């Protein structure tokens, strides 16, 4: 069984009992090309699902044959869909891969959070250092005034406390979730979870590392090339220099001679 997709898309199909349908765009485009449908893109996929949603409900016919479910629809273009029930082994393999995708995503999210905490602590120490030096040089009146005018930010401006931050975050998240129904939370969780590429979902860390390092090297090469072009431009077009009279002492200013009027000595 191939690796699962690392990008999923939610689509609403009203005629389904559950209105949310998740599909893999790349797999759909690849399958369509195999059937002779070329040039399938995001807009055409949206048009396709819109056409399905508007025409299939009143025209679709279902037939069950053993473990297969056949669906046919004819609205000028006849389509036949065949859904086959996976055997227990394939189903188990799929669920294992899907679970490991989620474990990989959660682990990466946790890694990001820990790195962010470390960065916050470094920035926090630097801010405290600057604040102390500012107070020694200018007093604390400006800082107190800023905090007074930005009361909503005061807690965030204090020294980062990991336990307090996590406690406040848990309360805030629970309060937000409690205002929605279970179904709404499921929907939001699903849409938020698949909103980004799951780049590490299939654990191809070696391949991803090579790709990211190559992109980084290319960025450095481009930046070095831009720097050389800027330097060459400066060398070829130097800034104009101020011309001075070398017969005059340095720093002296010469004024134009006044013309004498007729009759004036």
Give the overall average pLDDT: 75
Number of helices: 8
Task: Assess the beta-strand content as a share of residues.
Answer: 5-15%
Residue stretches low in confidence (pLDDT < 50, at least 5 long) are: 242-265
- Protein structure class: mainly alpha
Pattern of helices and strands: EEHHEEEHHHHHH
Order of adjacent strands in the largest pleated sheet: 3-4-5
What does the main sheet amount to?
3 strands, antiparallel
Helix proportion: 55-70%
Question: Given the C-alpha coordinates, what overall shape results?
Answer: extended
Total discrete domains: 2
CA-CA gap between termini: 109 Å
Query: Would you count the extended β strands for me?
Result: 5
Whole-number radius of gyration? Answer: 34 Å
Topology diagram in text:
Layout: E1 9-12, E2 20-23, H1 25-34, H2 42-59, E3 61-65, E4 68-74, E5 78-84, H3 88-138, H4 141-149, H5 154-157, H6 162-178, H7 182-193, H8 205-236
Antiparallel strand pairs: 1-2, 3-4, 4-5
